[in-house]
Amino acid sequence: MGATRARCRRLLVGCEVLGDLLVVVSELLGNAVRHGTVPVSVVLTLWHEGGSLRGEVRHPIGEGAGRPATPVGVLAERAALDAGSPVAVDDLAEGGRGLMVVRGYTAAVTQTTTSGVLATVWRHGPCGCVRAVS
Q: What predicted TM-score, i.e. pTM, was given to this entire model?
């Protein structure tokens, strides 16, 4: 994960929202490792569109290789967040806040699952980068 954050720093020179982006990337990569299938395979894509910084994390999910299907609690959290409803979180739980954190640092977040691959796409406002993402 540290190597990915370092690459983001190199690609996004002058980015005014770099700290926000690094939190988002860390949360989503952590989720991919925790909830993805083994071996973990993650694709991170960053781009500029319409003056905004956008990103996507894709990884396989589902049962297999010792991993359970997406937990019911995660599905309920996603549905509540998508509906704009408050999400009940156990104050003593060690996890369960990832999507809320990502939504707090971004302007928009969507998740879709196609053929066993979860794609989380987000948009942040203007970023001030002096070099295009490649």
A: 0.77
